[in-house]
Every structure is written in structure tokens, then in C-alpha cells.
Amino acid sequence: MFCTDLHPVCGVTGVSCAQTGSDSSGWLATDARDPSVPPGSFEAIIHHYTACKRLLGALRSVDRQLDSVRSYQASPLSNPALATARTAQLKKKRDSLQTLLRVNRREARALLQRLDRAVA
């Protein structure tokens, strides 16, 4: 089940929080700020890459579910209220995933800049 409430620490829906170890959704457990990965290391870059890969997979899954709901909605025997509610839920989930991808991208860029400065 997808949690539509904001996570109390991270402020995003459907994410795992590395600070509390709690998972507000149960469907996606990823956080680019894993305390076991030393910041500014090559392992941190790998961690960002794998987190991004998981998030993109989840985004593709949500897109497939949205397509399924749209085809259900087009059928003559569909329940419009059910289809509308499910579409709204999936759009919230999609927005949350896109937000997490943006945060991950920004953190990865900042990490790469720090590594470039350290090498130069």
C-alpha cells in the first residue's frame, strides 16, 4: 500500500528514512543518504546510481499501472469513481518518485563536483 501522508523526517511520501530507519510506505525502500556509505567516496556514487535505477524501475511500474487504469476506464463496465481514485493515487506516487529522482540527481552532481575538486 502506498502512503499518501508526508514522511515525518524526509518530508516525502513513500520513502525510507535513513535517519529513523522507518519506512512510510513499504513499497519502496531507498534513500540516497545511506549512513553506511562514506560521503565523498566512489561507493557513494555507486549508491546513487543503484538508487536511481530502483527509482526509475518503480517509475516505469507506475506508468504501466496508469496505462492499465486508463484502459480500464475506457471499458464500458468500468467504475468511474474507482478509476479516478486509483489514477489520483498513482499520480501522487509518480510525483513522489520524480521528486526523489530530482533529489538524487542533485546530490549526485554535488558529490561529483566535490570529487572533481579533490582530484584537481
Description:
By secondary structure, this protein is mostly helical. The chain has a domain at 42-119. The chain has two helices and no strands. The longest helix has 40 residues, at 80-119. It is rod-shaped, with a radius of gyration of 17 Å. Residues 1-32 have low confidence and may be disordered.
Topology:
Blueprint: H1 42-74, H2 80-119
Q: Can you summarize this structure?
A:
With about 120 residues, the protein is an all-alpha fold.
> Which descriptor suits the 3D outline?
rod-shaped
Beta-strand residue percentage: under 5%
Terminal-residue CA separation = 47 Å
Q: Count of helices? A: 2
The chain-level structural class is mainly alpha
Main sheet record: none
Please give the number of β-strands: 0
Helix content: 55-70%
Radius of gyration: 17 Å
Poorly predicted runs are: 1-32
Mean pLDDT: 76
The ordered string of helix (H) and strand (E) elements is HH
Features:
single chain, disordered N terminus, mainly alpha, rod-shaped, 120 residues, 61% helix
